[in-house]
Amino acid sequence: MNELIALPQYRLLEICGPEAQTYLQGQLTCDLNQLPVGSSTLCAHCDPKGKVGALLRLYHAREQCFYALVRADSAPHALAQLKKYAIFSKVEIRPLETEIAAAPTAKCTEINAEFYINLGAYSLLLNPQQAAAQNRSDEWDCWEIQQGYPLLSAELQNQFIPQALNLQALEQAISFRKGCYIGQETVARAQFRGANKRAMFTFTSSGGQCPSPGSELEIALENGWRKTGSVLSAICQGDTLWLQAVLNRWEGETPQFRLPEQQTALELYPLPYDL
């Protein structure tokens, strides 16, 4: 990706007000007290059972004002849940009509934008003043999969705890030292008592159709193939299928996995972080 690419698969929520930081501190898995102005982190908004209702990239825009990037199909649910208890705090949460794009960070000095969110090699840009390339959003999704960032669709909201999506290994996505937040008891138990046995893994395959989120994989056992796990996301980029799946962890040699309908063999793609 060497140019500015439009990202219509994302929406932007604004959370501002005198008590915005305190309110979000009791809602999200990250520690907002450790998120300086101008920085961002992945995080989750969970239900009371600790299941992830929305994955957010939270950007600290200025004092007591935050932007949350969320997948478009998850945005209505995320907005409704974030606003659920906002009536009791001095905070306003609203969706913004904002153009969101991505570009190599090295080229961002050539592009005027309202905000830049640095992700390392690439940056997100809000309301860029330069026309962005359309119909290439799959390239960005593919890049996110390669970075090990989970892509959570609306179909799979409230099904996984944050650790099953590897959030404990990503940026400042989960704080185990902050105070209470929605779902905190389940998240802490999974971390300190070993209650979580699942993780997100990335696979590739040559050819094959993209499976739907929530569909199953198959694992090779001594007596044949057995269905297992759940597809989180899948992108067909050129002749290559990129796939994320939540599976039970294994020890020792990596098992063989395949897609059931086409019996397409899957190859494990290494995550860029340790679990």
UniProtKB/TrEMBL annotation:
GO terms for biological process: iron-sulfur cluster assembly. Residues 196-260 form the tRNA-modifying protein YgfZ-like beta-barrel domain. It comes from the Bacteria. This is tRNA-modifying protein YgfZ-like beta-barrel domain-containing protein.
